[in-house]
Amino acid sequence: MRTYAGHSSAAASNALYRRNLAKGQTGLSVAFDLPTQTGYDPDHVLARGEVGKVGVPISHIGDMRALFDQIPLGQMNTSMTINATAMWLLAMYQVAAEDQAVAAGEDPATVVKSLGGTTQNDIIKEYLSRGTYVFAPAPSLRLITDMVSYTVAEIPKWNPINICSYHLQEAGATPVQEIAYAMSTAIAVLDAVRDAGQVPEERFGEVVARISFFVNAGVRFVEEMCKMRAFVELWDELTRERYGVTDAKQRRFRYGVQVNSLGLTEAQPENNVQRIVLEMLAVTLSKDARARAVQLPAWNEALGLPRPWDQQWSLRMQQVLAFESDLLEYEDLFAGSTVVEAKVAELIAGAKAEIARVQDMGGAVAAVESGYMKSALVASHALRRQRIEAGEDIIVGVNKFETTEPNPLTADLDTAIQTVDAGVETAAAAAVREWREKRDADPAKRDRAAAALARLREVAVTDENLMEASLECARAEVTTGEWAQALREVFGEFRAPTGVTGSVGLTGGAAGAELSAVRERVAGLGDELGEKLRVLVGKPGLDGHSNGAEQIAVRARDAGFEVIYQGIRLTPEQIVAAAVSEDVHLVGISILSGSHMELVPEVLERLRDAGAGDIPVIVGGIIPESDAARLKALGVAEVFTPKDFGLNDIMGRFVDVIRDARLGQTAEPVNA
């Protein structure tokens, strides 16, 4: 039983973890901030506005020691949501455990052997959804391969990769796509480990036994439960037939769950509680496919960062199910059900067909590099949005049953979510500079750090396992940014395909008529201005959750706009340069990480400095009402949040904003 947690600083997160453990939480699930996930120190330009926002910043071994102060790592099960820099965080975790052992008079090697937990480390889904990749697929897979090989030999209880279908569903995956792309990723990883030859053939079953999965459970809980049974059957077949694993225990499908956050609503957020409970049932009702670990989001995650009390509520949901209900006392409730068997068979057949399609392309890496999987997910997500807009998929409180009594939970929105002190980033940036300066002021420490980084670069150009070199970097007090930069110098960086390559379109019904009306307005204003309307969709900072930006870009193209979308991880300077060079009529900024108050004002200021202050800027993301008001006061034309689900309505507002900026007038929508 876990809650996914971490924010502000190592010390603040440590206090939160110890409170949660005292409340009955049985494991830790660590959220790292975006600079840590993408290999930047807090004082890097790209870290601006992101430090401590969606997780805890860990810049060096000192931070890792502080994060787990008074938490005995040899007895803890720790899940770390980290991917591109997973090797680095595991190296620091191991060194922190060794330090604890020495302080307690224990044998460090024995404690390391006892370490239990998981590094997420699924880089494939980062190219498809979360966007915290750093390197291209090939060197990224090499880092994963080295970690798997190292942990099997040295940290046998550790799960070195947690293959994540969770984020695929967030990006729009159907159950079939979720199963197929997760299994394709597993094949890519297992093939790479086998072919690397670091693990003896007779021990390959141990590799399979350490592979775990991180799965999404949506509100359609019968279908989700069947999906899990399909996962179990397919994994057993795959590991037996493709890899020759004969031990049934090693073939067991071991998975943890974070129930769906995509379906949580800003409108009537109290409804999220029953959604979370239904989603938890999907992965606990069926004993033959039951999750081994469950973590639940909080009811207010569509509004902002949950408070400790909100996290406690989610933990208590699990405890009520586990200790008050009788659910865990019975054998599988669905064995022999013809309905379940038919649905499972349907999902398996569809997944096998999609797996075969990906394998025919050359596997998961090739399907990422070609853009196939990303485009498929963007299209699936667009179709889901269309069904919601058309009322075919009902979301209670959003597109049906919208009337509501005043909500006491959100009466004061400024206190209904956790906020991160604005001074956190300044303090973290100053602290990491002080760490480097203090280290380098000691000639022995400076030379050791330099030698460790040089060794890391040397090993990176060979086939040697990178884990030992990373461990020495941790012991030598190297920082996260220094470790990642050394590998960037060898591996280079990578920009994944955006998936925004064509139109999806709407056909028939009221939603189709609305889109047609918006197209007419777009074309009409373009005729008035004598040029096609151009929209730039930008994602500044390190927020890689691009699903919303992609859906806006796709619908804008369907509505007749010319769309400039360059993907994730841009600086405000780059966004402004693109807006000016493309002579756009509107700039749309998407931020979900909470850095809007730092990055959006900079975009506005840079537009004015470039003589383009007349280009209107709109912002979308998880933005509290008070922040939305402040952004509008600074000059933002419009702010959209998750409650604004009607993409055609948003496109209509694009036209209004452009008309007002260019002609000083706003026309009534055609369908008003």
From TrEMBL:
CDD domains: MM_CoA_mut_B12_BD (cd02071). SUPFAM superfamilies: Cobalamin (vitamin B12)-binding domain (SSF52242), Cobalamin (vitamin B12)-dependent enzymes (SSF51703). Residues 532-661 form the B12-binding domain. InterPro entries: Acid_CoA_mut_C, Cbl-dep_enz_cat, Cobalamin-bd, Cobalamin-bd_sf, MeMalonylCoA_mutase_a/b_cat, MMCoA_mutase_a_cat. Keywords: Cobalamin, Cobalt, Isomerase, Metal-binding. Transmembrane segments: none annotated. Its cofactor is adenosylcob(III)alamin. It comes from the Bacteria. GO terms for molecular function: cobalamin binding; metal ion binding; methylmalonyl-CoA mutase activity. PROSITE patterns: B12_BINDING. Gene3D superfamilies: Cobalamin-binding domain, Methylmalonyl-CoA mutase. Heterodimer of an alpha and a beta chain. Belongs to the methylmalonyl-CoA mutase family. This is Protein meaA. It comes from Knoellia sinensis KCTC 19936.
